[in-house]
Amino acid sequence: MMRSIQCLLLTGLTTMSFVGCDTAPGMDYSLVELIGVTGQVTLDGNPVPYAVVTFESVDTGSFSGGVADKNGNYRLRFDVNKLGVPPGRKLVQIGTARKILGISSDSEAGDPAAEENGDGEPSNDPREQASRIEAVPECYHKDSKLFVTVDDSSSVFNFELNSDCSTVGAN
Description:
4-stranded antiparallel beta sheet; about 15% helix
């Protein structure tokens, strides 16, 4: 009986190591088609510094994401080791207050300690300061209706967002 439980636990742990979060240690990236995706995010004609941009697969729910620089330019990551986005139709979400482990935060989303500099004081890092206030209307993150199709012929997606939520795709 005890041996059966041990085998069951070992099988479960082995299965979990293969399922993981899209990638596991030692992943063979040659099995995944990735397309390098870059672009710029602006709101009412002005760059959106440190915006968090995610492309979520309509089919699988998996996502690639990245954080824009101070000029609103972004590059998407498949995971912490590899740049790129699998091809296909994607729901795009853009915001400045979002925290995504491994993309816009080294700690869990919403963890107040992540916004401190280690001594209990708020960080002076401009990326963290900018991310405390949501600068992008909800229609582009929480209620996003932005969709793009990633393929070999389309890898640059500039989002010229408008405060009135009239943007529906990339340019």
